[in-house]
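Progress against Task 2.4 (sequence-to-structure conversion) is shown through the following example record, which the project officer requested during the mid-term review.
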Amino acid sequence: LSSKTVTEVLMLEMKMSPNAKTYLISGYPRNMRDVVEYTEKIEIINGAVLISWRQKVLERQIDYGAKLGQVVLSLARMELNNFFKNVMPVADYFDQSSMLVTINGERHPGDVYKDFKAAIMKILGTQDNPPVFSNGHIPEVPADVTTELPLMAAPVPEPPRPSTQVISVNTKPTNMYNSPLKQGWPPVLWVIGGPGSNKAVLCDDVARETGWAHVSTGRLLRAAAEAADQR
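Structure tokens generated for the chain above:
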């Protein structure tokens, strides 16, 4: 699907949860073209979290899933190659913009979830009006996030993030399009990870705990593809 179509689907899905305090969007963007389209149509992005796995470990995850009949091996390998070719440059772009927090996914699920949630709170904690859980409590902001990335140097302290960033990678005027997002719109975070990184599961768990909205673009795209095949 084109970046234009995917962004419109994403926008529609977000508008279906108008009372969300925070949006977690997993599996997006797929490439820099998606980033350009997003900046023109939706604009608001507070930060991104990368669930980091080594490629060879994700390949083993995919092979195991294929043996269990959970994934189609050829499609999963294609998605993995696309991730490292097209999505990782997006992660690098956000890292250079000081909008990315990276956590190591190759650990016990409980430890990964703890650091994933802490990474989200770290991004949201610099806001003037932080989001609240469904129970009305404002989340506690961690002082740091433990990453334990394999074979990686200790992370350099990040500069404070502004409350909301409007990214721009295209200088074309966008006066012809009126974004549905208005002043005071809730925070939007992207969750990036390759196939088998459990990014959607992590987002589901956080959404259940907080009452926030999770939009899985991977599930939306698979549903759209299946619908097209049935026509």
